[in-house]
Structure formats: C-alpha cells, structure tokens
Known about the structure:
It is built from no helices and 3 strands. By secondary structure, the chain is mostly beta strands. A 3-stranded antiparallel sheet has the order 1-2-3, with no helix packed on it. 0% of the residues lie in helices and 39% in strands. It is elongated, with a radius of gyration of 17 Å. It comes from Phytophthora nicotianae (Potato buckeye rot agent).
Amino acid sequence: MSKPPTHTASWNTVSDYEHFGYSMLEANRTTLVWKYILSSDQSVQDEFVMYKSEERGSR
Length: 59
C-alpha cells in the first residue's frame, strides 16, 4: 500500500502502514493470550491476557 486510506472506522485510533506483523492467539479453558508480533524482528509489540473467572457452583 503506497498511501494510507483517507477514511477509517471511528473505532480505529492507530494505523501503521510501514511496519507489518502477525497475531498469535493461545487459549485454554481458563486463559486467552493475544500477541501482535512484528515480522522484521519477531518482537512482541502488543499483548493482552484474559482470564476466565470460576462461576459459583460450577466444577
């Protein structure tokens, strides 16, 4: 892409058209981990973790 688009969605606060990467998603029964990894050097640029809370009365 030579030029960034002129119109973006209202929820989009940041765009970067020079650095590219990919997402990694890891999940199990209690945890979800998302990472954005920069392709050029494999560094983690963004990450979040979500934990499932245990419901009362469930096993």
